[in-house]
Amino acid sequence: MMLRAVIRRASSRGSSASSGLAKSMKSSRVAASSQSFHSLSATETLVPRGSHARSYFHHRSCPGCSECSRTLLTSFQGTTLQKWVRPFSSDSGDVVEAVVPHMGESITDGTLANFLKQPGDRVEADEAIAQIETDKVTIDIASPASGVIQEFLVKEGDTVEPGNKVAIISKSADAVSHVAPSEKIPEKAAPKPSPAEEPKVESTKVAEKPKASSPPPPPTKQSAKEPQLPPKDRERRVPMTRLRKRVATRLKDSQNTFALLTTFNEIDMANLMKLRSQYKDAFFEKHGVKLGLMSGFIKAAVSALQAQPVVNAVIDGDDIIYRDYIDISIAVGTSKGLVVPVIRGADQMNFADIEKTINSLAKKANEGTISIDEMAGGSFTVSNGGVYGSLISTPIINPPQSAILGMHSIVQRPMVVGGSVVPRPMMYVALTYDHRLIDGREAVYFLRRIKDVVEDPQRLLLDI
What we know:
This protein is α+β, with helices and mostly antiparallel strands. About 40% of the residues lie in helices and about 20% in strands.
């Protein structure tokens, strides 16, 4: 009983002490709150009035309060968000952004080649403001709306991907007048050297002159075997374009993958040239395009591919894919590199359709406006090196195709015709093929068929 009484008496004393401690802490908290109120009122002019000031006062009055912490965070986050967002957009939608367009399924990035406009220039909707150079074609970046270019977000030579922001365009000229001066301020704000510092610079230069006048060390004597290389200032280092890199990669992959073999033949061009000379005026009046020799070779290649379907096929892993269509690629050399547009459904075209398609694709390739879809695919390639004066060459296969036909220049050579030696316009032709798929017999028969059709175009009419 005595022990229980002692325990009850001790617990009652602890409760009193706890309540006293709580009262002491509460009073100190009130004092701290009062002190913070006075300190805040003294600096009240430094805080903007309104909800932000009340939130800040609440936070200072109640440290550790979760409610005022959330209010303070929301209040100041809103202020920061306005500072970051304001240069890029406005409530009225006055500012728009030009982004990199989709460049094709097989192209993931490109290099910003050059800007067609400058900051401050007026642009119209869908007007090109920059160009992107990809592995295959050059793509324009168009302005999404009419307005004035405010600034560019990338530099020439940067690698960009679809969706990247390139430029900021203001729909009104007023926005540029406010932004342009701020951009020029850092250039004018460069500190000028004070007059007192100029004598120091001159004295330093004067002091350094005796050091520069010291005699140079004697030149080292080169050995007799050391080659005399030209100085570096007579060399120029220019980075490769993306198109040239792509061509180099594909051609090297062709050599590393295919078992390349080339067979040659020669063609008497007299009959085809006579046909062209006889009907070129009537052909132009009816179809609006000139009759060239390329259409005759395309028709001959179609006939040869139909006679030897394996040349139109391709290896895919352990399988052979035979194509029941004939899409012929034509190699076109441009100032930026080699491109290979495709004549689709060449087996369904006549001479006029082929000439019109070739002219259209060649014009787009030289202007740089050809699209990726117009160069995708193709089951066989024809390359005409004769337009540059090539007499004979061994073309390289355009992957993933299995063969390529090379045409060359026409040269008058002495030939035996009917037991007599006469001058004839002759052309060497070459067929490079993948020997893994195409045997020598099929390759020779293919090239022989082209020779027969070109030398006697009437075979196309009779299908013999």
